Every structure is written in C-alpha cells, then in structure tokens.
Amino acid sequence: MTETDTGWQQRLASLITTLVDAGDLRSKEWIEAFTATPRHVFTPQVTLTTGQGYRQISGADPAEADEWLSMVYSDDSLVTQDKPHAAGHTLPGGQPLRVPTSSSTMPSLMARMLEALDVHDGQRVLEIGTGTGYNAALLSHCLGEANVVSIDLDPGLVEKAQQRLASLGYHPTLIAGDGATGAVEHGPYDRIIATAAVPEIPLSWIEQLAPGGKILANLRGDLAGGTLCLLAKDGLDDEVIGPILPIGGHFMWLRPEPDDPHRPHEHASAPQRGTISRTTTRVDPTGIPVDDEGFRFLLQLQLHGTRSLHLGPAFDPNIRDERKAVIVTAADGSHAEAFARPELDGTYQITQSGPRRLWDTVEATRSLFDDLNQPTPDKFGVVANDSTQFVWFGNDDNWHRWPLPLV
Ligand SMILES: C[S@@+](CC[C@H](N)C(=O)[O-])C[C@H]1O[C@@H](n2cnc3c(N)ncnc32)[C@H](O)[C@@H]1O
Question: In the annotation, is 104 catalytic?
Fold first, then answer.
C-alpha cells in the first residue's frame, strides 16, 4: 500500500471538519459531495512557488508523496498549470515569472460558492472553467452527471479532467471551447458557475439561463478582484440582477487564448506620459486607503481602466531623489504621484501626466467613499442585460451607478 492509498481519507476528513467548523460547508448535500470526492485524483502534480522559484510536487514520486498529500488536503488553491509572463518579468531570484493558467480552487472558496449557488435536485448547471475537474465531480455527485456541463478553453485540461472524472464513475458533459460563449447546445441552465473571472457578464450566459436561473461569477478588475456576484434572472427577459456577495473570491481571468495567460488588455503597453503637471493638495496622501478592498473597488468604478494603486517610492524631480508617494496608473498612460511628506506650508506635491488627471479622481473618490460610509464591495450590486451593464449602490430612492466592464 502506498502513502496515497492509506493517507488521504484521514486528511480529507480533517479538511472537511475545518470547512464545516469555519461555516464554509453547511449543507448535508455538499458535505456528502466533498466527503465522497478525493481531491488528489484531480491534482496529481502541483506547482509550489518558493523563495527560489518554482517546484513541481508529484504524487507519483514516493519521496514527495507525503508533502503532496498535505498540500492537496490543505485549504489552499493549487497551481496545476502555468505559462511565462508575457512581459518577461522575473522573480527576485532572476527566474522568469510564471502566470497560472489552471488551478484547483481553494476548497473553502469552492464550498462557499457551491453553498451560495443554491442548487436543487434536477437542476442543470454549466460550469465555466473545468480545470482539474474537481468541481465538476462535486457537482456531478450532488446533481447527477446528466445535469452537469463544464467547459474549458484548454483541450488538454478537458481531456485529463474527463479521464479523472471517469475513474470515479462520473461522465458529465465536458466541452473544449471558449466559456465566454457558454454552451448553448446543452442549455438552458438553472445555474451558471464561473471559476474564471470576467470584467463584465457575457451576454451568452444571460441568454442561456432559464427563467429563475442564477449566475455566480467573479467580477474582476485590475484594482479589486475578489468580488463574487450572484445574479438572478427573474422573468423571461434577458436580464440578471443581484448583489455582490459578502464572500470574497479571486479567480484567474477568463482568457481568449489557451496558451496566453493574459487577457488582451494586459498586453496593451501604456502610451508615453507626455507633459507632467505639478500641483499641490491639502489632502494627506497617506490617508488614502490604498489597501482597502472597498476603496479599491469604488476607485475602479470611478476611474475606468485603472491598472494600479499603491504606496511606494517615486522619483521626485524637485529633489532628484525618491520619496514615498501614492502612485496611481491607468491603461491609457495616465499617471499620478502624490508625495507623502508635507511641504512647509502643509500642502503635498502632486505630479500628474497623461490624458486624465487621476489624482483628482482619487481625492473625489476618497470623499465619496466616506459619504457612502466606507462600503465594502458587498454593499454594491450588478445589473446586466442585452443593452447595458452596470454596478449599483444604494436603493431606488438614492442610488449611484457605474458602467461595466471593469477593465
Ligand atoms: C481556477 S481554474 C478552474 C478550477 C476548476 N473549476 C477546478 O475545479 O479545478 C480556471 C480555469 O478556467 C479556464 N479558462 C480560462 N479562460 C477560459 C475560457 N475563455 N473559457 C473556458 N475556460 C477558461 C482555465 O483554463 C482554467 O482551467
């Protein structure tokens, strides 16, 4: 008997206890599905990022089997496939940076999503992003294989997932194709669960949803990514509406090319910065909550195409040296730096360049954030139909709206 044969049941039981104790896994159906589904069957080899670079850990190597099983039955997401970063970035050790192109989602997040999906016997589910096939196995256990359709862009992944699912006796419908177009030939669906992130809801998903159906998807931008929304189609119209959930969840992008880990917008190089304008402000830049998920989400809505926001060193031409600054950049080449140290008159230096004055919007967003009582993303919701898509905040009497997509 190998380490795998003997060691996994106990580890799986302990993982399930952790998920139940944390409240991630609640219902009898999903506890049974997780109990019946060995994750290691779907993750025979995983990639670990270390200080030095990357390490493959395989269950087939007896010397690594124990470490591999510990990883597989931990509450971690596991990278199962990756590709080099297109911009050629490197790790601190000099090794090329790699971007995951498939992974097995963190079990606690999968559990929270499956619970939120609110499935009932006899319902049909479309999963976008088959990946390892693990989630398709859980869905097949709960709903029956005939009710599960799963699509992945990468035919190699689909083939492997099919073999793994078959080894456990499951034969859901698996498709190699672009999940952005859905799978109309097997619809309509009562539920669509996307395990790859989108900057807006593809219209095909809305059209392929049965009346009363729901879409659970990670709506992602470049500043804030952990926003899962649950959108319901109430009538016959092609419209879905619903809240952003209080459960965070971060996925890799739904991408158009199997071998390219990026979405097209990530390839676009920012144009020249042009003339730099210098102004001052009385708003202390260090008071901008650059790491607050709610603020980042709101700023992303206010400033379409924002690529980054952080506190870090920036070159100040006045003193010809680096100083701490809040730095914000956008895809159109706009760029702003707000230096953190006050001048003698109590003001702070701002430099801005490119087509938009980003800092002005950062300041305005800071005020709006406070006016709205510093909302977390789950205080917002989404509407999507065949003519418009937007994020809303508030209620019918008093509301704000911002157009999608987020990038
Ligand atoms: C986080 S993984 C999915 C995890 C999977 N549900 C599991 O249980 O292992 C995301 C998957 O989305 C897939 N993906 C990315 N873009 C896609 C697209 N346009 N259409 C379908 N799948 C896509 C990736 O190939 C990857 O396997």
Answer: yes
Is the Cα dihedral 369, 330, 219, 20 positive or negative? negative
pLDDT tens per residue, range 269-322: 766 667 889 999 999 999 999 999 999 999 999 999 999 999 999 988 778 889
Residue of minimum CA distance from atom 24 in ligand 1: 102
Query: Beta strand 125-128 with 148-152: parallel, antiparallel or unpaired?
Result: parallel
Is residue 218 in a domain? Answer: yes
- Helix ranges (H only) for 144-279 are 155-167, 203-207, 264-267
**141 C-alpha to ligand 1 centroid (Å):** 20
Bridge partners (DSSP) of residue 214 are: 191, 232
108-164 pLDDT, tens per residue? Answer: 999 999 999 999 999 999 999 999 999 999 999 999 999 999 999 999 999 999 999
Q: How many domains does the chain have?
A: 2
Type and span of the H or E element at 370: helix 358-371
**189 in any annotated domain:** yes
d(CA 310, ligand 1 centre) in Å: 29
Mapped onto helix, strand or coil, the DSSP state of residue 145 is helix
Q: How far apart are the CA of 269 and the centre of ligand 1, in A?
A: 26
Q: Is 249 a domain residue?
A: no
